[in-house]
Design brief:
Elements lengths: L1 H20 L3 E9 L11 H12 L4 E5 L2 E6 L2 H6 L4 E9 L2 E9 L2
Parallel strand pairs: 3-5
Antiparallel strand pairs: 1-2, 1-4, 2-3, 4-5
């Protein structure tokens, strides 16, 4: 019996940690691009121009938040439309990747 309880407790703990890791979160930051990353972290005219140009040439959009660079999955058109701007993103974070469920310009 003790082994079954231990196994069940372990399974529940693992399941809970997986669910908490996949909980939707809200994160604020700046839409940059994969080549320059955190070197563009605010919406100055030159940063916005560079970010939009690099994305137009095929660089992937990324989110820079508190010095960390996150890859973005999902909502591609909405993310690209907000390139070079401060945004609020909702989604799940897994390591250095955010699966975006919504993105909006931050006022």
């Amino acid at each position: 019996m003790p082994f079954k309880k231990l196994a069940l407790t372990s399974l529940l703990a693992i399941s809970a940690s997986l669910l908490s890791a996949q909980s939707p979160q809200t994160i604020n930051g700046f839409i940059s691009e994969s080549q320059c990353g955190a070197s563009h972290a605010s919406p100055t005219a030159s940063s916005t121009k560079c970010v939009k140009g690099c994305i137009a040439r095929g660089a992937a959009p990324v989110l820079v938040s508190e010095g960390k660079v996150y890859k973005l999955k999902g909502e591609d058109a909405a993310v690209k439309d907000l390139a070079g701007q401060n945004v609020t993103i909702k989604g799940t974070i897994d390591g250095d990747t955010i699966t975006v469920t919504s993105v909006a310009a931050k006022s």
